[in-house]
Design goal:
37% of the residues lie in helices and 20% in strands. By secondary structure, it is of the alpha+beta class. It folds into 2 domains: 41 residues, Winged helix-like DNA-binding domain superfamily/Winged helix DNA-binding domain (Arc Repressor Mutant, subunit A), CATH 1.10.10; 81 residues, Alpha-Beta Plaits, CATH 3.30.70. It is elongated, with a radius of gyration of 20 Å. The chain starts with a helix and ends in a 16-residue tail after the last strand.
């Protein structure tokens, strides 16, 4: 990737709905050249997709939690079983295998505390190998972004 690719990526992160003509003007290339670069970045999965960013509260998800999971063991079969189960849970926005006192960190959304309780007791609590669960409820979101800090010289 060169500086033009990085500039394209920065601009698309800020506004994925930017037209090809606008993007071409911004990076000082012809529209066909920009289109070819964007297609290449998509094919190489540098650009993995495009999405509408929703306001969680306005669509009814008022409760965000971070849940840490500790496993009883760390064999590949146990890890894969957890991965498979987590993929089935639509409340889980993110799941990361991490270092430290716990093995996984989840970012999850719920409409209320009752949904959170049900999720922990009836969904996480039934996954084989889950030994410990620690939940932190978000009081206020201070910063949230999907934009990577790409530097363009």
């Amino acid at each position: 990737m060169d500086q033009v690719d990085l500039s394209i990526l920065n601009r698309l992160q800020a506004n994925a709905r930017m037209s090809n003509a606008e993007l071409a003007r911004a990076v000082k290339l012809s529209p066909p050249a920009v289109h070819a670069r964007v297609k290449r970045l998509e094919e190489e999965t540098v650009i993995k997709g495009y999405a509408a960013m929703l306001d969680q509260q306005k669509v009814g998800f008022d409760l965000v939690s971070f849940i840490q999971i500790g496993l009883a063991g760390h064999q590949n079969e146990q890890l894969q079983a957890l991965h498979d189960e987590i993929h089935k849970l639509p409340e889980v926005l993110e799941c990361h295998h991490v270092t430290g006192d716990f093995d996984f960190l989840l970012k999850v959304v719920f409409k209320n505390r009752q949904e959170l309780h049900h999720f922990i007791a009836n969904q996480l609590g039934t996954i084989q190998g889950v030994l410990r669960v620690n939940t932190s409820v978000v009081l206020k979101e201070v910063k949230s972004t999907t934009q990577l800090p790409i530097r363009v010289d």
